[in-house]
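Supplementary Note 3. Input sequence used for the single-chain structure prediction.
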Amino acid sequence: MSDSFKAIGKVVSNIKRGMRIPVNGYSGEIHIFKDFEDGLVGIENNSFLVIAALFGSPSNKPLMVYPRGDFSLELTGVFSLRSPVRPNPIALDTVELIKRERNILKVSGLDFYDDTPILDIKSYSPFNEIILSATQEKSFIFAKLNVDERKELLTGFVKKSLGDISQDSIEAINFFLELINKNVVIRSKKTKYKVRGSLKFLETVVLISGATIHSGRLEYELDKNNSLEIIPPPP
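The predicted structure, written as C-alpha cells, is reproduced below.
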C-alpha cells in the first residue's frame, strides 16, 4: 500500500505547533487548493463537516500508552483511545461550517494546528453518526481537566449538538459535573438515572449520558423543577 497522500488543502490559523488548543477547538480557516475547489460545490448545505488531516509521518510509535499521559491509569491500546500517538498519523475532527468564500472554509471547533495538511472533507450526518448509547467505561477525557475545563467541554458539546444553551441545559451540565467529580462514569451501561424536569433538561441529560428510556437506563417524570439522581446510588 502506498504511504503517500495528496493533500487537498491546509489549515490557516494563529494556532502554531506547540501552542495549546482550546478544549472545544477554535475558529480558523481551511484553505482548499484550487485543483480541488470544485469539490466544494454545495458544501454550504451542511452545518457541520468531518475533516481528515495528516499530522506527521508513519512511524513505529508504541501501540500502548497511558491515557492522556496519566501514569496512574493502566496502559491502554491506542485503537481504543483518541491518542495522537498512532501508527498512521491521521486525525479526524468535526467542525462547524460558518461560511464559505470560494476555496476558503471558515469554521469553528477546529482542533488542528496552522499549516496542517487536509486529506479529505465529508458532510456530517446527525442521523448516521450520533450514537446515544455509546459508552466508554472510563472517562479518560476528564482525567487531566480542571473543573472549568470540564464545564467548557460539556457546554461546547451540548451547544454543538443542540444549537443553543438554555438555562435547563446549564442545570443538567452542572448536575453531571457533580457526578463526574464523584468519579461516576456517566456513560457506563451500569449507570442508571432518575430524571425530573423540563423536556429541554431531559434532552440534555440524554445527550450527555447516552441513557434513554427504552434502554432501561433512564426514568423520566415531567416536572417544573429539574433534578437528576443515580439509581441506585453508587457505592
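The helical segments are 126-129, 147-162, 167-181, 199-209. The longest strand covers residues 90-101.
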